Amino acid sequence: MKISQITKSQLSSKEKAFIHNELKMVSRSFYLTLKVLPREIFTPAGIAYLIARYIDDIVDNESLPINSKTSHLYEIRKSFTNTLSNNDLSKSLHCNIKGCCSKITSYKKVFDNLSSENQHIVSKVLLHITDGMSFELEKLVPHSPNEVNFLNTYSELDTYIYKIAGSVGEFFSNLILLHEKKLELSDTDYFFELSSDFGKALQLTNIIRDFNSDLIEGKCYIPKSSLEHLDFDSYKLLNHHENQIGLALSELLPLTTKYYVRAATYIMLIPKSLPRLRLAALWPFLIGVETLNKLASNKNQHDLKTPIKVKRKWIYIMITKSLFLIHNDKTLKFILNRQIQKLYYRVSNL
Fold first, then answer.
1. Which of helix, strand or coil describes residue 220?
2. Cα distance between residue 253 and residue 204, in whole Å
3. C-alpha to C-alpha distance for 223 and 102, rounded to whole angstroms
4. 294 and 199: one domain?
């Protein structure tokens, strides 16, 4: 993909500082991943992430009824895909959440000052994310206590994780192809397919990690068809029968591992001449694989008091080590393959 000219973004230094500060408050670890990106990619990626987190907070807000959440999503979707002013956005939102309108209108102002090419890419991923959130509200959010809603099939699961996370992988690939002239690909479609599967791997890891807390909220992302095959029901899962939960989660582990294999291939397609992009892809991969390894080897998956989390010290050590290996293709490939082999071993010995 060749783009002859890119319209420059019109962001002020104040707006750039605003994005940095917001990202630090929202997610310190993810901020590090975004911060390593080239400057021209950081801004659209950062504002897209902030808007997506805002949308996620709306969906998770227990004080809002489902119809208000759905309406809110619709207005957000419309505002970032049409030429609506901040005044129009403020009037259309249900602003009974403290600070919600000022936050999203601030994000909208930054979005409006992006280049038209960046706006198009951000709008596209937000369309997918709002679709995914609407799908979640429709399919999974329970309407009464002690109710558990399930996805029906693996096809529904794939649709959901693509909209929520696979599309984000494609979003980053779009930004890379727009801004990085050093990246020469023989098969752009393959690059996008790999990036989508990378996002799916990370989302499935989150689903496995948060299985218990989601279940308490009445949401189960493991397809009902799979649970019926294992002769499970919502009662067994809600009462945290240890063996049943372990078996249920083991259904997702091989699929997640397959996606991480594809993610490793994606990382190797980014040349060593683009070290910042390699790091931005490598860090989420290593954190995700380490998390999945811990989940696969955890003996207390049913115990809500022992949440699985990669320690901050491990993250900082990993970041430091990664700086010495991204410039060597052979070393990087060895590390990626070793991580995958370790994951295969964990999953195959459940």
1. strand
2. 8
3. 38
4. yes
| pLDDT tens, residue by residue, 19-57 | 989 998 887 678 888 999 999 999 999 999 999 999 998
**Does residue 34 sit in the same domain as residue 109?**
yes
Residue 251 maps to a domain: yes
pLDDT-based confidence at 3, cuts 50/70/90?
very low
What is the full DSSP assignment across 238-262? HTT-HHHHHHHHHTTHHHHHHHHHH
Per the CB < 8 A criterion, the answer to whether 201 and 166 are in contact is no
Structure confidence at residue 92 (pLDDT): 56
Q: What SS3 class is residue 128?
A: helix
Q: How many CB atoms lie within 10 A of CB 65?
A: 10
Q: DSSP secondary structure string, 258-327?
A: HHHHHHHHHHHHS-TT-HHHHHHHHHHHHHHHHHHHHHHH-S-TT-TTS-----HHHHHHHHHHHTTTTT
Mapped onto helix, strand or coil, the DSSP state of residue 140 is coil
Checking if the pLDDT of 87 tops 70, the result is no
Between 161 and 307, the higher pLDDT residue: 161
Backbone φ, ψ for residue 160 (5° rounding): -65, -50
Residues of the chain with pLDDT > 70: what percent? Answer: 84
CA atoms of 16 and 30, how far apart (whole Å): 17
Spatial contact of 300 and 306, defined as CB atoms under 8 Å apart: yes
Is residue 118 domain-shared with residue 25, that is, in the same domain? yes
pTM metric for this prediction: 0.91
Q: Examine residue 52 and state whether it is found in any structural domain, yes or no.
A: yes
Q: Averaged over 51-64, what is the pLDDT?
A: 89
CA nearest to 252, candidates 219, 203, 193:
203
| Parent domain of 124 | 15-139
Asked if pLDDT for residue 342 goes beyond 70, the answer is yes
Within this chain, do residues 255 and 116 fall inside the same structural domain, yes or no?
no
